[in-house]
Amino acid sequence: MTLSIRGLNAGYGRVKVLHDVTVDPIKPGEFVGLIGPNASGKSTLFKSLSGLLTPSAGSIELNGSDLTTFTRRDRSRAIAYMPQAYGCNAILTVYESVLLALKQTTGWRVESDNLDIVSRTLSALRLTHLANRGLGNLSGGQAQMVAVAQTLVRNPRIVLLDEPTSALDLHHQLSILSSVRSEMKQRGSIVMAALHDLNLAAEFCDRLILIKDGMIMADGQPADILALPQIGETYRVETALEATRRGSLYVDATLRGAAVC
């Protein structure tokens, strides 16, 4: 299973956001980080992939099949999208909300294996302790982790996560990305995550795609992409790629022209 994007153009009305976006095939099990400044086109790309937005040109193919030929249900089964902003029914418990997310793609009759799938998903994401908690009683970070569970429980072939760590503390950022990476590699699914934290991107992603002004600026392995001068140019900062004592990469960044104390 591969995902291919060729010559994609998309926008809103007369405002064109994506300009001839082409991405080399993304392979099963790959965790791809989509990086770039605010308003660079990351969310628009995700909406185009998920079917929420119809591109004006270009193609999106899953295993060589044009996604526009998929029925709405088949597309929702194949691709799960977690947007930046998501609503919730505060009456439901966490367990019920994840079960409801699952049933949206399997029909409404609840089978015993559905309950097992929900329990396994909550366990994989270390959320079992929240299972009986009402959604209205969750913190923002907890609600975000539950939204990830609602996305993964459907067992999609492609998972699109738009800033999945924005409301999480450091512990839960590492925990949720580690769990998602492990779970999706076991399933052989593709993950694309829009990430603002370049150090998290370096830690968890197999591949990074840098986007600016709706155009792909670079695409490759994290060590190669984060060392490019385009990183500093894109974010309008001075950057240096360093290595920690345990060998992982991190991006040291300062504002251009900022005084060093």
Description of the structure:
The protein has 261 residues and is of the alpha/beta class. The protein has one domain: Rossmann fold, CATH 3.40.50.300. Helices cover 34% and strands 29% of the residues. The strands form three sheets. The chain has a six-stranded mixed β-sheet with strand order 6-7-8-3-9-10, sandwiched between helices. Helix 3 packs across helix 4 (112-124) and helix 3 runs parallel beside helix 5. The longest helix has 18 residues, at 170-187. The radius of gyration is 19 Å and the shape is globular. The termini are far apart. The mean pLDDT is 90.
In brief, what are we looking at here?
Helix content is 34%, strand content 29%. It is α/β, with parallel strands linked by helices and 261 residues long.
How would you summarize the topology of this molecule?
Layout: E1 3-12, E2 15-26, E3 31-35, H1 42-50, E4 57-62, E5 65-66, H2 72-78, E6 79-82, H3 94-103, H4 112-124, H5 140-152, E7 158-162, H6 170-187, E8 190-194, H7 198-204, E9 207-212, E10 215-220, H8 222-225, H9 229-235, E11 237-243, E12 249-255
Parallel strand pairs: 3-8, 3-9, 6-7, 7-8
Antiparallel strand pairs: 1-2, 1-4, 4-5, 9-10, 11-12
Helix pairs in contact: 3-4, 3-5
Dominant shape: globular
Strand percentage: 25-35%
Fourth CATH level, the homologous superfamily: P-loop containing nucleotide triphosphate hydrolases
Number of strands: 12
Distance from N terminus to C terminus (CA atoms, Å) equals 51 Å
Main sheet record:
6 strands, mixed
Which structural class do you get from the secondary structure elements? alpha/beta
Please state the average pLDDT score.
90
- The radius of gyration is 19 Å
CATH architecture name: 3-Layer(aba) Sandwich
Q: Which series of helices and strands comes N to C? A: EEEHEEHEHHHEHEHEEHHEE
Number of helices: 9
Estimate percent helicity. 25-40%
